[in-house]
Amino acid sequence: MTLPAFFYTVFESLPRQGPGCTGASRKAFSHLPPIPADAKILDIGCGSGTQTRDLAALTRGTITAVDNHQPFLDSIARWAGKQGMQGRIKTVCASMDALPFENEQFDLIWSEGAIFIIGFENGLKTWKPFLKKGGFMVVSDADWFEPNPPQELMQWWEKEGYVPASEDEMKERVKQAGLRLLATERLPEAGWWDNYYVPMLARIAELRKTHGTVPENAAILDSLEHEAETYRKFKRYYGYTFFIMQKV
Ligand SMILES: C[S@@+](CC[C@H](N)C(=O)[O-])C[C@H]1O[C@@H](n2cnc3c(N)ncnc32)[C@H](O)[C@@H]1O
After folding, report:
1. Residue 166 vs residues 75, 80, 134: alpha-carbon distances, Å
2. How many angstroms does the Cα of residue 5 sit away from the middle of ligand 1?
3. Which residues span the domain enclosing 154?
């Protein structure tokens, strides 16, 4: 899927490109047994790398950060250089459905807020071969927090081209992908609101002044604002859950 360039104008300067928070990443990581000191870690759909930096702090291994947007990767490489971590953090520009890696290379695959791009079960199945036997996969994705979501919310998700499943359905998909579920962990509301929508809405207000007269750009800003409003209105019904899994 190719996104309009203006989309990246909105997202490039944001602290995160999807809902998340360091506390939740740490909590998800805490469900894993100790991983080797020289672990090879793959961070898929890394964006500008907030969770890459979290993983760098949580582990001593090497991290390969993958995204299909090179400027995000450049900002990670700049950060790694400043931290003297260029030996530990490598970036690869590639599509998550055609990753340029050999099978059974990684001890841990991590992906926050990105697996929806190729679908949860498809993503698990596509990425699993890259894990060593006994390796771990941690992904966050949207699911229903309550049954019977209102029609208006269902219609919004359908328009987005993606309808969440219940946590039980997601667990079934983990099983279908042949992975063992170790734990789940819900992302707290601050991960959506404080870390994602608050900076995004500020960026939208700024961009309306400079780019808002171009109809295609205004439509993107409107749709992102509507997404934030949808979350504000319906947040009790859905959210992100981390699925912490192992290849057995
Ligand atoms: C919702 S953002 C999440 C970014 C980051 N993980 C975070 O939580 O801040 C999804 C990321 O996936 C990247 N992406 C989109 N399609 C992709 C693809 N086919 N292959 C690799 N990355 C992709 C986008 O550039 C973006 O950085």
Report:
1. 35, 38, 27
2. 14
3. 19-188+237-247
- Evaluate if residue 181 carries a pLDDT over 80: yes
Q: For the chain, how many structural domains are there in total?
A: 1
In a domain? residue 81: yes
Residues in contact with ligand 1 by the CB-under-6-Å rule are 16-18, 20, 45-47, 50-51, 67-69, 72, 95-96, 112-114, 117
204 occurs within a structural domain: no
Using the mean position of ligand 1's atoms as its centre, give its distance from the Cα of residue 209 in Å: 27
pTM: 0.97
Q: Report pLDDT digits (tens) over 187-240.
A: 999 999 999 999 999 999 999 999 989 999 999 999 999 999 999 999 999 999
Residue 142 lies in a domain: yes
* Sequence-ordered list of residues with C-beta below 8 angstroms from that of 152, at least 6 positions apart, any chain: 234
Q: How far is the CA of 69 from the centre of ligand 1 (A)?
A: 8
